[in-house]
Amino acid sequence: MDETRIWQVIASERAQTADLLAGLSDAQWAHPSLCAGWTVREVAAHLTLGPRMRIGGTLSAFVRARGSFNRMVDQTARAEARRPTAEIVATLRSLVGSQRLAPGQTLLNCLMDTLVHTQDIALPLGVERHMPVEAAVTSADDLWRIGFPFHARRHLAGHRLVAIDAEWSVGEGAEVSGPIEALVMLLAGRTATIPRLTGITA
Q1: Which terminus of the chain, N or C, has less C-beta within 10 A?
Q2: What is the torsional sign of CA 185, 187, 190, 194?
């Protein structure tokens, strides 16, 4: 995918997620997401943060988190989640056309983050949302390549991952196959899509 197409997918995902969030009940906003310890509200709040983060604010948040990246992500999302629901939705809508990345973030990471967190919200709520196949392939490649924070190659060592709806495969060993979007979630450390895959159990 070229840069223009990636930004188009990110914009589309943000717009569709804002539409989804706008129609949720209070109970659904408080429903557990696929992110451990986060409800739908925290994930939604997290999705609004990246393009709005600046170097100074990020450094301050990192210091408050005592040098832990994961703690910083958690703390900033929880703080943002205290805002009214309507403000969170409005902020996400305002970012639909933004092409600003968080400090230190790559465009590929932004794409993956957007795709995965959309599913983190939709799947637990029983809402059917599908990743664009080309974008899912791009994110799968990125997830396999990077280490932190998912370490997919280490966790899935001894397996060959094969998409049944795209020309994509990685790894060596026992075959795990299924839709590319389900494999993306597995690479990102989620177990919710394992029932859609063959060759692996939770």
Answers
A1: C
A2: positive
What is d(CA 32, CA 67) in angstroms, rounded to the nearest whole number? 27
Tallying the residues shown for the chain, one arrives at 202
Residue 141, φ and ψ in degrees, nearest 5: -60, -45
Give, for 159, the enclosing helix (H) or strand (E). Answer: strand 159-163
* Residue owning tokens 């393009």: 51
Tokens of 74: 């958690």
CA pair distance 158, 22, nearest whole angstrom: 42
Question: What phi-psi label fits residue 37: left (phi over 0), alpha (psi between -120 and 50 degrees) or beta?
Answer: left
Q: What is the pLDDT of residues 51-72, one digit of tens each?
A: 988 777 777 877 888 888 789 8
Look at residue 165 and give its three-state secondary structure.
coil
Q: What are the DSSP calls for 49-92, one per residue?
A: TGGG--HHHHHHHHHHTTT-HHHHHHHHHHHHTTS-HHHHHHHH
- Count of Cβ atoms closer than 10 Å to residue 32 Cβ: 13
Query: What would the pLDDT profile of 147-170 be if each residue is shown by its tens digit?
Result: 888 999 999 999 999 999 999 999
